[in-house]
């Protein structure tokens, strides 16, 4: 394992003090998966808290806010590292925080690992012998892409079920049957979880998943899908086989999510945009269970979901509130959901410049480029079909929007109040209708820069004197 030089110096210092340092948790798992990791946690046996602090304090700024948990945060030149003592945990009450922690430097590696949630997170690494310490078979499970609980104490923390969801999505894992059964026994504990912790796990799923459908499978297998009725209701909702040979709405949504996770645009995005797009794709068909009907169309009976895009907007809002999403995420996701059918207009559909400019305004605070990503994921989520016409129409919209420079930002009014005042017009609310008219003209292409806006105003005033 490649260990930062500054951390290696600290590990040597701890060992010289008589400690038994181990790299633990995510950094070991990520190393075995050949993934980059910047989150190095160190567990130190054979030293008391005071002795550990004495060894680390000369190296950099230390924070002992976690003293009751046996944790010291050491700030070195490039980042912060957590050094902790092995500990025992005992359940004292309901919920995620209902634990009593007992730091115990005398615990063996196997005893210390037993408190961790999954075997893939219970692997330790000796930085001096370069050996894995894996008493629960985590490396074996990792190679088999299996997510398995470490011990029966798993059920003491219901948040671990949502951690299973995001781990499955991030690392393309399948939940072990016995772990799924264990999760099902604590399904009623969901209401004990603080909303901010629920969001923390959904956020990791939305921003870091490589196979997001795996996370939804975990929710289904554990019985936790019922806590998210907007998702649960898609299961079993039928679709017209000619257009959706893949199956019901939930199956379609899982294909769409996985398609998004392979999109170059999503992969290149920052976390803020990733979560916006992933949650919009998850919610894009939330309206189908309400609107799906078996009706006659063109002389034969078909499954249709007329108006599901508009119906899905309120369901998207409710779901995001249910999982504790930040308030400023709700509007862009809702907007993308209600516009996601723009590419279902037939192969001959066209967009005028005016329509594209207005679309960019309607999508605020999302963008046309965001919408294109969502629509592409929707189009690709119906294997074995490859909807060439839809993909071409999406690309046509993207290209036109780029040409108008509104693909990533909506047009802003060029004619402002100061321009009206410069024409000796008296200030006041009576100017608003004229500014609105000018912006409509701008969206229609009457002008495209400030000089053109002023010229338009002068012509307008000449034809329509204010007095």
Notable traits:
single chain; 467 residues; alpha+beta; 7-stranded mixed beta sheet; two-stranded antiparallel ribbon; 22 helices; 47% helix; globular
Textual characterization of the structure:
This protein is an alpha+beta fold and 467 residues long. Helices cover 47% and strands 12% of the residues. The chain has 22 helices and 13 strands. The protein has helices spanning 5-16, 26-32, 49-56, 109-113, 138-143, 159-171, 177-184, 195-208, 212-222, 229-232, 249-261, 264-267, 271-283, 288-291, 308-322, 327-338, 353-363, 368-380, 388-403, 417-422, 432-443, 450-463, and strands spanning 20-24, 41-45, 61-66, 71-75, 80-84, 87-91, 99-103, 124-126, 131-133, 146-147, 174-175, 293-297, 300-304. Strands 3-4-5-2-1-8-9 form a 7-stranded mixed sheet. A two-stranded antiparallel ribbon has the order 6-7. Helix 6 packs parallel to helix 8 (195-208) and helix 11 (249-261) packs across helix 18 (368-380). It starts with a helix and ends with a helix. The mean pLDDT is 93.
